[in-house]
Design goal:
The structure is a single chain. By secondary structure, this protein is of the alpha/beta class. The chain is built from twelve helices and eight strands. Strands 1, 2, 3, 6, 7 and 8 form a six-stranded parallel sheet that branches. The protein is globular. Bound molecules: zinc ion (ZN).
Length: 282
């Protein structure tokens, strides 16, 4: 499928007042988004989660209470993800197929068994609005509009009033740029339709900080993309989660370069072609 598609995503909700504000803005523009929800918040605001789903958006797993998963024992990580999947299923009826680790911190090994266990694809981002940090609507808009391009996955948080304040102009600006905003799953399925995969070689093994360069060259680890996409749109698609041994034909080494085990490093290694440094969310 051709087209200037991108995904704007919202993390850390659902929030009792800000998420509904956002939903109205999205609905008015016919935009569908992916919401990476925190299990605890789903339990607190189940009606908001149901509204998100009812209005055509996608719900994904963002852990139970937002810890740095890459530093945790496997059992605890499994619990974080399973509890969240359970509450989403219980409250909305859907089972999430995507996850995003808080702070982008998730090891290669974790990605592998999360895929094997739940079929999760680990979704990161290439455009970081840094909305949680500056809390400035004008900056949110400026950052997003400056860096969003076809294939982008844009990171925002629907728990901050200032983020939602930024959205009418941000969304209108994205549409004015000619971008068509879809859910992450829709974005991935568009890329998947394009066979054969060329992303056999992953990011260079030179080190974590070089992963972005590798991604820019066309490898979003484990995700099948075409050369053309690698050259343009998909260079910014931060989809690092389909562990190769399970699905694709790409072996993942234990020491694969996309390993991210600390917030700051995770940002450096997972952001594909991103223009701004990632700072771990407090
Ligand atoms: Zn988060």
């Amino acid at each position: 499928m051709e087209g200037p598609y991108a995904a704007i995503t919202f993390d850390d909700g659902p929030h009792p007042t800000q998420t509904p504000r956002l939903l109205k803005m999205l609905k008015d523009r016919g935009i569908h988004s992916t919401f990476f929800m925190v299990g605890e918040c789903v339990a607190e605001n189940p009606e908001v989660a149901r509204q998100v789903l009812a209005e055509g958006h996608e719900i994904a797993n963002h852990s139970w209470n937002h810890p740095l998963l890459s530093k945790m024992a496997e059992g605890s990580v499994r619990d974080q993800l399973q509890r969240t999947a359970d509450v989403i299923k219980q409250e909305t009826g859907v089972t999430p197929t995507l996850m995003r680790p808080p702070y982008g911190g998730f090891t290669v090994n974790q990605r592998s068994w999360a895929y094997a266990t739940w079929g999760y694809r680990c979704i990161l981002w290439d455009v970081d609005s840094l909305d949680w940090q500056h809390r400035n609507p004008a900056k949110t808009k400026a950052i997003v509009l400056a860096h969003a391009r076809p294939g982008s996955i844009i990171l925002c948080h629907d728990i901050h009033k200032t983020t939602i304040d930024a959205m009418p102009a941000t969304l209108d600006g994205l549409l004015a740029k000619g971008l068509k905003l879809v859910t992450v799953s829709e974005l991935l399925s568009m890329n998947k339709e394009k066979a054969p995969a060329v992303a056999k070689e992953k990011a260079p093994a030179a080190g974590k900080d070089k992963a972005a360069a590798g991604s820019k060259a066309g490898a979003t680890a484990g995700h099948a993309i075409t050369a053309k996409e690698a050259a343009n749109a998909a260079t910014s698609l931060s989809e690092l989660g389909t562990p190769a041994p399970v699905k694709a034909d790409v072996p993942v080494k234990a020491d694969a370069p996309v390993k991210s085990d600390a917030p700051a490093k995770a940002g450096a290694s997972v952001k594909t072609g991103a223009p701004t440094p990632t700072v771990a969310k407090p």
